């Protein structure tokens, strides 16, 4: 049924002379298409507990967006085709679960130098007029972030996978790094911070380089769960072991005003790897089906991350994280000739990735570890206080620091980052009847600060 209705819709929206009739036949077609799509997308919605398809509110959103889709396809200035999909029935608040690019409030030190000074790229070198990393197997297929605001972790991993494929000569089918690790570990311990509420690509790379010594596991070892969990890679093999991040590059593309725009970004894609960009998601973008997307945004405040994997004189090729059913097998062509769409060239970034053990002369690719066994990890000997544990900040220098155990933060490492169901059950049994301030004081004085998991909301002795 969905295929039949889709054909009818495609015929309607591709005919520039067709106007939306205000009659019962049109209402029936809209209702039928709404029912078919929402039923087909039931599993897609259920990941976030959404129930779409039985209420007037979602139908109203669907009908409004369907009208916008037809208006877009009837607009002769648009060089792309739109179509109804699983997002068409979702309101703005529900759509936010499939976004997640949140620029940091301040830049780290690694972001102060623009990537235009990267010697790998060069300022005056000629590059091909068009290039697609999918053609030389140095990018992986589009994945799906599900209903978690983790587009930033998918873009960050996609760039790392591209760099790894280029440097090692591995095949795309052999490389699948864990988005879950970046989701769990990038903002570990930050008060009230959940990776599904959004993040930023450069922070993920910086964290991987400086706090986790470039230890990135595979999707098989740490699969994606569509939710933020506790950061843990203990005992898991480092699938990123042949390479390491040495720098992180981020800056505006000062060639954005040229035609075609983004010459510097095209050089990055060709000379280095796929690059991450931030974007503004609006209805026209979410309904994209094929062609060269050329509709500017009403609001340029970014909220979604993409990965650029290729270019031509007319467009950049962006890889999204909404699965392969969206767009052109999960990809979109972004116009290079109609201005800096949604201001995305303001946010171009990628890590500098190099071979960890040098280059093999015979293959020109990253060499294996020449040592029969890896050097033992340095022994952490620093004395820590207030419940904190010692950890190695830099394996090459042996620098040590102190931090709370995984899953805790705050004064004396007493506050649990998350409470599991069994914790909440115990909390409920022992909760006190005083107002929040009094029960907190009572809990602290009677059982000790460390024995009160504050985020549970109740007093609980472990």
Estimated share of beta-strand residues: 5-15%
Structural class designation: alpha+beta
Residue share in helix: 25-40%
The CATH topology of the largest domain comes to Cathepsin B, Chain A
Shape: globular
Q: List the total number of helices.
A: 12
Q: Could you say what the CATH architecture of the largest domain is?
A: Alpha-Beta Complex
Residue ranges: pLDDT <50 for 5 or more in a row?
1-21, 423-440, 453-462
Average pLDDT taken over every residue: 80
Q: Quickly count the domains.
A: 4
CATH superfamily grouping of the largest domain: Cysteine proteinases
Q: Would you report the number of β strands?
A: 13
Radius of gyration, in Å, reads 25 Å
Order of helices and strands: HHHHEHEHHHEHEHEEEEEEEEEHH
Termini separation comes to 56 Å
Q: CATH class of the largest domain, please? A: Alpha Beta
Major sheet size, sense and barrel closure: 9 strands, mixed
């Amino acid at each position: 049924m969905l295929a039949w209705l889709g054909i009818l819709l495609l015929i309607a929206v591709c005919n520039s002379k067709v106007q939306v009739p205000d009659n019962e036949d049109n209402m029936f077609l809209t209702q039928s298409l709404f029912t078919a799509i929402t039923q087909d997308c039931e599993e897609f919605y259920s990941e976030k507990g959404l129930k779409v398809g039985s209420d007037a509110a979602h139908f109203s959103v669907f009908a409004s967006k369907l009208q916008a889709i037809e208006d877009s396809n009837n607009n002769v200035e648009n060089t792309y085709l739109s179509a109804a999909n699983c997002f068409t029935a979702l309101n703005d608040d529900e759509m936010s679960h499939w976004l997640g690019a949140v620029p940091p409030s301040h830049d780290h030190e690694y972001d102060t130098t623009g990537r235009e000074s990267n010697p790998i790229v060069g300022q005056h070198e000629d590059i091909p007029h068009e290039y697609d990393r999918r053609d030389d197997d140095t990018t992986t297929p589009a994945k799906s972030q599900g209903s978690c605001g983790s587009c930033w972790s998918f873009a960050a991993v996609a760039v790392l996978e591209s760099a790894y494929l280029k440097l090692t000569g591995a095949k795309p089918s052999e490389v699948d790094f864990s988005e879950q690790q970046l989701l769990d570990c990038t903002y570990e311990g930050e008060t009230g911070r959940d990776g599904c509420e959004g993040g930023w690509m450069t922070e993920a790379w910086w964290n991987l380089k400086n706090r986790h010594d470039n230890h990135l596991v595979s999707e098989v070892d740490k699969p994606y769960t569509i939710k933020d969990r506790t950061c843990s890679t203990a005992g898991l093999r480092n699938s990123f072991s042949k390479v390491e991040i040495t720098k992180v590059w981020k800056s505006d593309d000062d060639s954005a005003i040229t035609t075609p725009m983004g010459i510097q970004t095209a050089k990055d894609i060709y000379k280095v790897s796929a690059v991450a960009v931030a974007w503004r998601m609006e209805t026209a973008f979410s309904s994209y089906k094929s062609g060269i997307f050329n509709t500017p945004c009403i609001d340029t405040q970014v909220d979604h991350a993409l990965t650029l994997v290729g270019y031509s004189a007319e467009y950049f090729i962006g890889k999204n994280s909404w699965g392969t059913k969206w767009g052109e097998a999960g990809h979109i062509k972004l116009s290079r000739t109609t201005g800096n769409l949604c201001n995305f060239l303001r946010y171009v970034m990628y890590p500098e990735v190099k071979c960890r053990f040098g280059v093999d002369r015979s293959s020109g690719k990253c060499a294996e570890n020449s040592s029969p066994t890896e050097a033992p990890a340095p022994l952490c000997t620093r004395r820590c206080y207030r419940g904190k544990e010692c950890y190695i900040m830099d394996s090459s220098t042996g620098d040590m620091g102190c931090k709370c155990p995984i899953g805790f933060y705050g004064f004396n490492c007493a506050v649990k980052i998350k409470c599991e169901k069994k914790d909440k059950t115990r909390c409920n049994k022992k909760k006190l009847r005083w107002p929040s301030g009094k029960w907190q004081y009572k809990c602290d004085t009677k059982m000790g600060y460390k024995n009160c998991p504050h985020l549970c909301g109740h007093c609980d002795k472990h």
